[in-house]
Specification:
This protein has helices spanning 15-27, 44-61, 75-87, 114-117, 123-129, 145-153, 187-192, 209-215, 228-235, 238-251, 264-275, 290-301, 335-343, 362-366, 375-380, 390-394, and strands spanning 33-37, 68-72, 93-95, 109-113, 133-137, 158-163, 180-183, 198-203, 257-260, 281-284, 307-310, 325-328, 353-358, 403-405, 415-421, 431-433, 453-455, 464-469, 472-477, 483-487, 496-501, 507-513, 525-533, 536-541. It has 553 residues and is α/β, with parallel strands linked by helices. The protein has 3 domains: 3-184, 3-Layer(aba) Sandwich (Rossmann fold), CATH 3.40.50; 191-368, P-loop containing nucleotide triphosphate hydrolases (Rossmann fold), CATH 3.40.50; 384-541, no CATH class. The strands form 4 sheets. It has an 8-stranded mixed sheet with strand order 10-11-9-12-13-8-15-16, with helices on both faces. A hairpin with a 2-residue loop joins β23 (525-533) and β24. The radius of gyration is 25 Å and the shape is globular. Mean pLDDT is 81; it is low at 384-411, 425-451 and 545-553.
Length: 553
């Protein structure tokens, strides 16, 4: 059977969804179990629904009834999948405790909760159906024991897992259950092409007391995340809750948003804080009765409520495109939770630009939302940092003709970390800049706009980044946004900047490459080195023909 023949052109799909579908059918010719990654808000449900329609149509044309199972772990995901099938006019039944009225075992296509389908009372159903295809939504959960029963009971079915975040806390990867991995475009490219919303990212300083307190926590739950009790002791305080409201009032007042909290008590405390200021806010957690939860969500979508505070309820499966801000009040050690939470605000809605308020400094641990993550390495369980050859960094480096740099630390207010600005035409230009009032020189003149801006990951305890513009390279203080000019070295306008810590732990080599994967190639070049001596930095150009310039700040 050639699965390429199943794939049909679906004019309702976006171009990248159609390409994804073609890749999945093609890969099914050589692999039974495939994991597909695409970001939150880019249409995973629509994609696998189109795949199911193609399977159904091909079967009807060849007088074959294919049995298909769609699996999810939350009622919101099950309802979402069922609604999408109905829009495609695909008849189906639902096997879930919360949707008993939709149970219909005569249908060859079933949407089921993993808890219901694997319950001992229902295992006979799996044998009776003998599913030909199984789709697993939010498939980063598929390593759980309950999902493993599907592999045992349906060994010959074609399986497709879809997720935005193929990452595991224990770094174990997914190779034990999936044979093949297909990644989509990175978030940055989805934003460039106008399929996801741009955003502004505000956060607390990386060396603030809050970040230091979170990093000092040594109590973890069974999954490896912070224990709730330990987080409450650190984060659920009057002072920090006041900071939550202050940052909302300053950067997102009157906008529609979601706050991620630690616990029910933390949510209630946040609601009390915001209500005292006249904000229309409600909270939801796992113990909220379904009818009350439904009413709150509907009121939120209708604009009758400004903010919903939740405890891990809206990390997956919640679709509300007009969310205008996300506030992170819950620290986590899970990359999955972080990406899923910020992703709730990136769903496209006109020319919306989402505001992300990171009040617990999560970007320091995980990077910014649009970072180009190596999901393939995560799939294979290989999370080693890309390390270049020693001679690439060490060869011909010296610390003569250096420039001393001093950048002030400023205060502990929320600062603008990243501001993605797309032109109305949604062309491929992708600018990361700072607000003019935030990023200034010592003469109080705002920095002029650039045609492009590329920023490295934070280094030296996440205090600094290296930024490249058309004017050249700068070192930027993450907290204050103060910038110091380094060199006019000309490179290509795209690519990445890497800052490599040398063995003496005081020297950092700045490298410009086309991508992280090409850092060892001849196309990459060393920009220069930074060496910390006391409270000062000394910068040395790699290319001695380039003259150094400085700005005193």
């Amino acid at each position: 059977m050639d699965y390429n023949e199943f794939c049909q052109l679906d004019i309702t799909l976006r171009d990248y969804q159609q390409k994804a579908k073609e890749s999945i059918f093609r890969r099914w010719n050589t692999a039974d179990n495939i994991l597909y990654q695409m970001p939150t808000g880019t249409g995973k449900t629509r994609l696998f629904t189109s795949i199911i329609r193609d399977v159904n149509v091909w079967g009807l044309r060849h007088n074959i009834i294919f049995r298909v199972l769609i699996i999810a772990h939350r009622s919101e995901l099950i309802e979402q999948g069922s609604c999408c099938l109905s829009r495609y006019r695909i008849e189906h039944g639902v096997l879930a405790g919360t949707l008993k009225n939709m149970r219909d075992l005569n249908k060859s296509i079933q949407v089921a909760s993993i808890q219901t389908i694997t319950h001992p009372a229902n295992r006979r159903l799996i044998s009776d159906f003998d599913f030909d295809f199984i789709i697993i939504d939010e498939a980063h959960h598929s390593v759980a024991r309950s999902y493993q029963q599907l592999w045992h009971l349906c060994p010959h079915s074609k399986k497709l897992g879809v997720t935005a975040t193929p990452w595991r806390m224990n770094k174990g990867g997914f190779m034990n259950i999936f044979e093949a991995f297909i990644p989509s475009m990175p978030i940055k490219e989805f934003i460039q092409k106008g399929w996801l919303a741009s955003y502004q990212y505000f956060s607390i300083p990386v060396n603030s007391i809050v970040v230091q307190s979170i990093n000092s926590i040594r109590e973890f739950d069974i999954e490896g995340d912070f224990k709730t009790s330990a987080l409450i002791d650190v984060v659920d305080t009057m002072h920090i809750r006041a900071q939550l409201y202050d940052s909302y009032a300053k950067h997102a007042f009157g906008k529609k948003g979601i706050i991620y909290s630690i616990s029910r008590s933390h949510s209630e405390h946040i609601c009390k804080q915001y209500r005292s200021k006249g904000v229309r806010i409600e909270n939801i957690d796992s113990k909220t009765p379904p009818k009350i939860r439904e009413d709150i969500i509907q009121a939120f979508k209708n604009g009758e409520i400004d903010i919903i505070v939740n405890v891990d309820i809206f990390s997956e499966g919640f679709d509300c495109p007009d969310i205008e801000f996300i506030q992170l009040a819950r620290p986590t050690r899970s990359l999955v939770k972080y990406i899923q939470q910020v992703g709730r605000g990136l769903r496209k809605n006109g020319d919306k630009r989402c505001i992300i308020l990171d009040n617990v400094g999560m970007y320091v641990r995980f990077g910014l939302p649009d970072e180009d993550r190596d999901w393939k390495s995560y799939f294979y369980g290989e999370e080693n940092e890309i390390s270049a050859k020693k001679d690439l960094y060490r060869e011909n480096l010296n610390f003569q003709n250096s420039v001393e740099i001093g950048i002030g630390e400023g205060n502990e207010d929320m600062v603008l970390i990243q501001d993605i600005i797309l032109p109305p035409s949604m062309s491929n230009s992708y600018t990361i800049s700072s607000k003019k009032e935030v990023c200034q020189t010592n003469s109080d003149e705002a920095v002029t706009d650039f045609n492009f801006s590329i920023v490295s990951k934070p280094f030296n305890f996440a205090k600094y980044v290296i930024e490249e513009t058309e004017e050249g390279f700068y070192i930027v203080n993450v907290r204050t946004r103060n910038r110091m000019f380094l060199t006019r070295l000309k490179t290509m306008p795209g690519g990445v900047i890497m800052v490599h810590k040398e063995f003496d732990k005081k020297t950092f080599t700045i490298i410009k490459a086309l991508a992280y994967s090409t850092v060892n190639s001849p196309s990459s070049r060393i920009v220069g080195t930074l060496r910390k001596e006391g409270l000062l930095w000394k910068f040395t150009d790699f290319d001695k023909t380039v003259s150094n310039m400085t700005i005193n700040i």
